[in-house]
Design goal:
Layout lengths: L3 H10 L4 E5 L5 E4 L2 E3 L8 H12 L2 H10 L1 E6 L7 E9 L15 E9 L61
Antiparallel strand pairs: 1-2, 1-6, 2-3, 4-5, 5-6
């Protein structure tokens, strides 16, 4: 198992779509072109080669990279999905750069980009059903009608209060 799989696992957890690593560069993680928070130190060429391991950077692929300047292939680690891997040789600028302005000097490292399709957006829960499904009107909120209360006969009206009712009762007579 390549050591890069642990980093690809982080990429999948964060729903990333692109991981860029390069010699002498800080790795970057993106979701559909927008950068994601990802903390990893700058990678040396030795570290990058160790992360990729012989499964991704075999002697044959390394030779093709040195000869052609770019190698693209598919990679599908267990449980992480399918990735397109793009290895690109970085070259130093030289006075005789080609007409497109691309560097033609000696190799100074390489870059690797892992791409995967955007994961589907999380499915939102459907809204709760309307209380009266036969009368849904989008402009009005649902109507709730209270249940009728059971009938209770009226209580007899109490006798009217007098001012004497508001006074405290007389104290009991003192015992002699």
């Amino acid at each position: 198992m390549a050591r890069i799989n642990s980093i690809l696992h982080i990429m999948v957890q964060q729903r990333g779509t692109e991981l860029r690593l390069g010699t002498g560069r800080i790795p970057k993680l993106f979701r559909e072109g927008s950068p994601l928070r990802f903390m990893m130190p700058e990678t040396s060429e030795a570290t990058l080669r160790e992360l990729l391991g012989p499964a991704l950077l075999s002697p044959e692929r390394d030779a093709a990279l040195q000869a052609e300047g770019r190698v693209t292939f598919a990679y599908a680690p267990d449980g992480l999905g399918d990735f397109e891997v793009d290895l690109t040789l970085r070259r130093a600028r030289a006075p005789g750069d080609d007409e497109d302005g691309l560097p033609t000097g000696p190799p100074i490292g390489f870059e690797v980009v892992f791409r995967r399709e955007a994961p589907p957006a999380p499915v939102e829960a459907p809204p709760p059903p309307l209380p009266y499904a036969d009368d849904p009107t989008p402009d009005e909120p649902p109507r709730f009608e209270p249940a009728p209360l059971p009938y209770t006969p009226p209580l007899p009206h109490p006798a009217p209060l007098t001012p004497a009712d508001a006074l405290p009762p007389d104290p009991p007579p003192a015992a002699s």
